[in-house]
Each structure stands twice: as structure tokens, then as C-alpha cells.
Amino acid sequence: MNSDTAMEPVLEAHSLVKTFGRVVGLDGVDLELYPGEVLAVIGDNGAGKSTLIKCLTGAEIPDEGEIWLDGVRMNFKRPQDARTHGIETVYQNLAVSPALDVAANLFLGRELRKPGPLGSILRVVDTKRMRQQARDELAELGISTLQDVTVPVENLSGGQRQAVAVARAAAFGSKVVVLDEPTAALGVRESRQVLELIRSLRDRGIPVILISHNMPQVFEVADRIHIQRLGKRAATITPQSHSMTDAVAIMTGAAQA
Ligand SMILES: Nc1ncnc2c1ncn2[C@@H]1O[C@H](COP(=O)(O)OP(=O)(O)OP(=O)(O)O)[C@@H](O)[C@H]1O
Ligand SMILES: [Mg+2]
Q: Ligand 1 in contact with 45 (CB < 6 A)?
């Protein structure tokens, strides 16, 4: 589904400012994410893409500006606050725990407990149930590269680790899924799977924010494209309204939208 001006955004940012000492990461950025859409965020290195999504997802606290989720003002102080509100994020610098196995990583922070007092009082983790659900979840998401959910993540390839992080976001993101360069470390087949995953999230009605440098992928999967330049939003375009060449020209400042 494409954006519709009659629709209210699910997630909205107004005039976000974030500075790091004398470095301006965000310089008054607006963003709107509409129901059921894939919004790509593109821009050169250092344009503020990661900082923008960190502010939207509680990993950074903006100096100024507002964040609204379903029409309610949010004040996320940490990623867990955003997760509690149904926003799942895969950060650019991978957030998996290498020593834990695939299943434990999928359930990180949401571990299933054994039934009865063992679980409710002694907080004993139900490893068997988590492994079974992890297998089911991965199968459902079409992630076939991870055959054994009991393998510690440190033994996986970079792409497989990325797949675990993406699977976790897809499995638990109930309102919004945010992916910062999810295919950067992936091979052709795994990249395809991630793109399929993004589409299936959209089809389930969950909007996705996708940060990517991969223009063909962006133009293939995005409904709208937010172009970030020098800490500001330079334009929001669509694959129908602009070509890849146009997008790059806006990104680099050679052209305006
Ligand atoms: N924790 C930090 N401390 C200091 N400066 C930072 C920090 N995080 C980001 N910056 C700066 O803010 C600006 C925006 O960085 P950001 O990581 O958001 O860029 P980006 O668009 O994600 O780039 P890339 O495409 O390379 O991932 C850069 O100038 C960066 O150096
Ligand atoms: Mg980045």
C-alpha cells in the first residue's frame, strides 16, 4: 500500500535535532511512516541516517524535536522503551550476542519460562520451547541458511548473523520494523530473502523503515524514499516520481527534488 495523505502516520518525527559535541548529526529532520508502507532512507555516509533511526528507536535521545507513535507523543530513553511499543530495530552495528545460540538470540530479553512455579518463581528458561519456536519462526520467514538453532551465533557467518537479527525484528515487530543496512553483509540469496521478508511484513500490515545504500534494492522494494543529506531531509520521492539517477543527484546535492 502506498502513502495516502488521508491516512495518519504510524510513526512521525518533527524537527529532530541531535548534536555530538560540535558535530551536527541531525539538523531539524521530519519523517513520516504510513501504515503498510516500506519507507527507504537513503543518503551519503554521515548524512544522519543511522542517527535518525537511533533517535526514532530509543538508541539515542534527540536534543530537540518530537516523536509520535499512533498519534501519541513518545519519549524513548532506551531501545527497550521502543520495543515495548512494538518497534523492532536491526541496528547497523549488529545487535546479537555472539556467545548465545540462535534460539537464545531470537528470544533475547523475551525468554520463555518453564510452565508452573519453575518458570514463574525460579525464572527457569524453557530452552526446548524456545528452540522449537525459533525453528518454526525461521521456517515461516523463509530463512533456510540457519539450519541449527543451537549453534552459538559467534560461529555463524556475518550474513547469517544478520539473518538472525532480521528474523528477530520480523518476529517481534508488532507495529514498526526498522532495518539499518540489513543486506550489506549478505550474499545474493540471503539479500533476496531479506527483501522477501520486508515485503511479507508489509503484506502483514507492518510498515518498514529500510536504510540502504543499494539503489536497485531500494527502488525495487520501497513505496517512498526519504533522502537524507547533511543532517537534513532533502526530499521524499517515490520510485515512480524519480529515477535512481535523480535520487543520487538529490543525495549529493547536484539537484533538488
Ligand atoms: N556517537 C557519535 N559521536 C560522535 N559523532 C557521531 C556519533 N554518531 C554519529 N555521529 C556523527 O553524526 C553524523 C551522522 O552519522 P550517521 O551515523 O547518522 O550517518 P549515516 O548516514 O548513518 O552514515 P553511513 O551511511 O556511513 O552509515 C556523522 O558526521 C557522524 O560522524
Ligand atoms: Mg549509518
A: yes
pLDDT string in tens for the chain (257-residue length): 454 456 899 999 999 999 999 999 999 999 999 999 999 999 999 999 999 999 999 999 999 999 999 999 999 999 899 999 999 998 876 667 778 888 988 888 788 899 888 888 888 889 999 999 888 888 877 777 777 888 888 888 777 787 788 888 888 878 999 999 888 777 787 788 888 888 988 988 899 999 999 999 999 999 999 999 999 999 999 999 999 999 999 999 998 87
CA distance 26 to 158: 29
Q: What is the maximal distance between C-alpha atoms in the chain? A: 64
Q: Is 25 in the pocket of ligand 1 (CB under 6 A)?
A: yes
Question: Atom 18, ligand 1: which residue's CA is nearest?
Answer: 48
Residue 122 lies in a domain: no
Ligand 1 atom nearest to 60, measured from its CA: 1
Count of domains observed in the chain: 1
User: What is the pTM for the complete model shown?
Assistant: 0.87
Residue 49 Cβ contacting ligand 1 at under 6 Å: yes
Domain assignment of residue 144, yes or no:
no
Closest CA to 182 of 172, 173, 169: 169
CA distance 177 to 140: 17
Closest-lying ligand 1 atom to the alpha carbon of residue 92: 27
Structural domain boundaries, residue 18:
11-95+158-252
